[in-house]
Amino acid sequence: MYKDLDNLLSAETSVDSWYDDGCMIASEILSEFSTEDWQELARKVLTKPLEWQKKLAYCLDSNCTNYELQILLSLLNIQDEELFVICIDTLRSYTTPESIKIIAENHIILKRVNELIPKSGVAVKKILEDFLVNIQQ
């Protein structure tokens, strides 16, 4: 299944095509991942192109698994603001006490979110603020 996901995320698509169809297909593939698929994804995700990583981050909350959480946290270390915001947006769906604890204990993430809020547009600012509210509950 990992190879299917890799091929999908590597394919050249229009933005509309990705958000209309590609993301749903990727979520379906992710829902069928085995432990080995998740491990392979975790090993390779940081070696993939930025656009591939952005697509993945956008569709990772399909099951809110620990694998997905760890992959999103690893993607937050990449110095790209758009990828960071996509990851934060996805992390808003991680509402279990365990997930919230893991996220809240990562002070670097919280610092970066707080630094971005004042210089963000309305939509991004709302995502970032909602994220902070979610993890403070």
Automatic annotation (TrEMBL):
It comes from the Bacteria. This is Uncharacterized protein.
